[in-house]
Amino acid sequence: MRVPRRRRWAVAVPMAALALATVYPLVFTANVAMKSRRDYILDRFSPADSLRWDNIATAWTSVGLGRYFVNSVIVVASAVALLLLIGSMAGFALSHLRFRGSRALFLCFLAALFVPFQVVMVPLAQVMADTGLIDTYPGLVLAYVAQFLPFSIFLMTSYYSGIPREIVDAARVDGNTLYGVYRRIMLPIGRPALLSVGILNALFCWNDVLISLLMMPSAEHRTLMVGVTSLRGQYSDDIPTFAAGVLIAALPVLVIYLFFQRQIADGITAGATKG
Amino acid sequence: MLVGGAQPTAGRPGAERTGRTKTPWRAQGASAGTGSPRAFGAQRAERLAPYVLVAPAVLVVATLRLWPLLLGVNYSFTGDGARDGTSVGLDNYAELVDDPLFRTALGNVGLLVLLLPVAVAIPGMLATFLFLRVPGHRLFRSVYFFPAVLSPVIVGAIFNLLLAYDGPLNSLLEKAGIGAVDWLGDPDVTMFTVVGVHIWATFGMALVVFLAGFSTLDTTLLDAARVDGASLARVIRHVIVPGLSRTIQFVFVTTMIGMLTSMFGLLYVMTSGGPEGSTYLPEYYIWIQQGQLNRPALASAASTVLFLIMLVVGLVQIGLLRRAGREH
Amino acid sequence: MKRPALWSVVLVAGLLSGCGSAGSGSSSGTADGTLVVWDWKSGEETAASYIEQAKADFAAEHPDVTVEFVAQPFDQYYTLLGTAIQAGKGPDVMLFNGGGQIRDRADALLPLDDYVTGDRQRLAGWEAFTAKGKTYAAPVTLQGHPLYYNKALYEEAGLDPDSPATTWREFTDDCEAITEATDASCLALGNKEGFGIQFFLSGLGPGVLTPREYDAWIAGDRDWNSPRVRRLFELWKETGDAGLNNDGANSTALFNDAFALFQSGEAAHIVGLMSDVGHWKDFGEFLDPDDIGVMPAPRAEAGAEPVLPYDGGIGYAVAKWTKKPALAADLVRSLTSKDALQAFYADAGAVVSDTTVDVSDGGAALSAITSEIGAGKPALHVALSTETLDLLGRLSQQILSGSTGVDEALEQLADSDRKG
């Protein structure tokens, strides 16, 4: 099925415009980060007259983004590891094993997907404070796991539902216990889904401001995005420094995306097409 | 069928019939159970295995989602300020019902649900064109995902500038003779603006899913359609949509979740609920009552209402999709 | 064979206990010899020397106490504070905006009256941090709402920049001259967040209300049906209808888009601030400092006597739950010591609460402001509850767009004010 040549171009032009529109904000941000505050206030859109790196340096040093960067890596990596482990275990059980309450349980996880974080925001902070987990890495990691687990379970269950029963049966006949099936069959076979669940969760956690801020009120434990937002005070109009911070925070994500582009696509879609 | 397919096999009557043996782990357990205590232990371990596998997930969700939720419900029956800590019955709920702002917020949830088909159709159309290899499709495919990696806070800040009354979009419109639109200042327009930006920021994800769906499409059908000289519209209706029903369902669910749970960041940065309160969503209402207005108990009541509504919306959606799935 | 499940249990347990020490309560401020301060200022470059001075002042008396400043993002500040208050745990000292924000949370704060008696005379702006007769914070800055104007635009329009309008009539005439002769709008208005109306009320209200009615409003006796209050809201509508504001005022953010309009000469007047941003120093970076004029509110009604509206701007308070109230109060005193405030003025251009700080080098606009401080009065909007201000913001947008009339708005505001 091919569209006639002229029509194809008629579609391609608006699509190219859309492509520009998706890249422009990044270009804009990079441009602003190269401007002085004065130039920015006088004209936001004009190209920066030179490559100034002082905003980047200021953003990095003034609130100590380097430290927050490390915090983010620690927290995001731990949260993603836990999400993958817990999510794939539950996904395997919910898709291939039958046990009492499994159906209701799956519906519960699914329903949890539709609840915005703000609903539990305050009582969760309370629970964390009561258990002494507030302002600790484990506290934030657990908060992330709680927030994004339903989505991980959803994706993993979808993916595993597409794995034929026969594969599991065969492994059982070979003498594997269920844990063995999980470890030797489901984990390796689930790689594409695990990869995409991992990357998506990493993205969510990395970009999160609200949860992190509430769970880590003290400065030394902040994550990168919170650090970047704190570059703006109540009134601060030093947007170029903020833009520089934004750039610093977005860079690792972009690099990872460009690196894993193919896998992300395969993984996200795994649940949607198989099964 | 996605949602149906994702449900536990045990829940489907068909699963047992199609399975060639009995449920495998039970059969295995029986054959291993020759009576020795060790085998008995192994058998019990096997029987408990599913529970052990879901236990961490249940534990986390129960303690960090469900328990706080219940605390919040409990808290919503107490008062704020001078009445802090005392029981006030349903007063907070009564106040919510009376608050036009909260009603607007709920109305906007309805609007989001109505706009859902648009948010699904746009990436669907784009994916169709990419699949049909419009010139530059490779480039578009990588680039369209870009906004999905940016935080909503950043996306919102940038669109604030682009959509300002004296911003570049309006000057473009004025040059074209259409005239300026107050994208973020006209209460009849702003909610659509924010939803538009949300779609812009997330369509890349749905697009990727659609593209993968296309890759599983039966090409012989498409070729047949081409031989018949069918128009694009007919091909989409009769070949692509039925062939991609599972993918479309998946995108529906994920897009819905995105719209109902993660618009906060954009709203916060782009409109703060304004103008005239027209872009309030319940989660923003909760935020304002809790933080700015120092009414945590009222915020808890709003949270409870929102949770119940989302539960209903979610279950209805799941039910609808499952029925649709069965028909295919 | 249970290994995967075991791993996860071990991992979770490890996270819960083992690494728990990673974050042992640095913000709870319970550790001996540490005071934790929350604010949104200490991270700003222009506040660095102020914090430095305050720390030095405090260290001179308490050399063994560590003070940890935590700069929070302002956007989420009060939500963060709210959760801390609910949990009954948090910083020892925290920054507040004067007015509703601190009054609403007075229950969680320590009354400072006994600690700050020595500073009473030296500092101004205490009222904004007072609730039910008790003082809960010591003012650091003064925040007011002078009406700034751009003298260069006046000249361009053929007006005398040294004798700005004194009546509303003259003011609208000048506006007409300015919009005709220049590309600028008469007023820069940013009402996206609903802040524009607050500045308008406070900036222009003194030109409408009689001193008696003004004082009664501040004291809490507000008659929303009085003709003068109605007149004030009609002025708000008039300026919109007559096109005195910039286009798209309801989608222009006050911070900092409206200020940018004035800074770049695209608007001739603005009700600005005295401290922080949108103030004389900020404007002076972009306009010639000699071109920045400050005028009293034009008189719209006979019997009004325009004064400079100002209050305490920001101030540090002490949490009720602190284990070291006397020490925390001492830190608050250091944060309002003369040397610290002098540094804050010098670097940030803040009009500080200490009226003995020498500001003679600040230029004409600043001296025009400071000379009025003695006769000034609290700003009208600061007296309102946060809930009423929230409603005011939405109603003001509706009045501008025409979807609500002045009468209806006043009725709703009266209701809300009664409840608050």
Structure characterization notes:
The complex is a heterotrimer of chains A (about 280), B (about 325) and C (about 425). In chain A, about 75% of the residues lie in helices and about 0% in strands. Chain A is built from 13 helices and no strands. Chain A has helices at about 5-35, 35-40, 55-60, 65-95, 100-110, 120-130, 135-160, 165-175, 180-190, 190-205, 210-215, 225-230, 240-275. The longest helix of chain A has about 35 residues, at about 240-275. The two termini of chain A are about 25 Å apart. Chain B is mainly alpha-helical and about 325 residues long. Chain B has a single domain (about 95-325), classed as Orthogonal Bundle (MetI-like fold), CATH 1.10.3720. In chain B, helix 6 (about 100-130) packs antiparallel against helix 13 and helix 15 (about 280-290) packs antiparallel against helix 16 (about 295-325). The longest helix of chain B is centred in the first third of the chain and has 39 residues, at about 35-75. Chain B is flat, with a radius of gyration of 26 Å. The model of chain B is unreliable at about 1-35 (pLDDT under 50). Chain C is α/β, with parallel strands linked by helices and about 425 residues long. In chain C, the strands form four sheets. Chain C has a five-stranded mixed β-sheet with strand order 2-1-3-13-6. In chain C, strands 9-10-8-11 form a four-stranded mixed β-sheet, sandwiched between helices. A two-stranded antiparallel sheet of chain C has the order 4-5. In chain C, strand 4 (about 130) and strand 5 (about 135) form a beta hairpin. The longest helix of chain C has 16 residues, at about 385-400. Chain C is globular and about 65 Å long.
What structural class results from the helix and strand content of chain B?
mainly alpha
Query: SSE order of chain B in H/E notation?
Result: HHHHHHHHHHHHHHHH
Annotated CATH architecture of the largest domain in chain C: 3-Layer(aba) Sandwich
Structural class of chain C: alpha/beta
The CATH class of chain B turns out to be Mainly Alpha
Percent of residues of chain C in helical segments? 40-55%
Q: How many helices of chain C?
A: 16
Strand content of chain C: 5-15%
Number of strands of chain C: 13
Sequence stretches where pLDDT stays below 50 over 5 or more residues of chain B: 1-34
In DSSP terms (H or I, runs of 4 or more residues), the helix count of chain B works out at 16
Tell me the strand percentage band of chain B. Answer: under 5%
Q: pLDDT average of chain C, as an integer?
A: 90
Radius of gyration of chain C: 24 Å
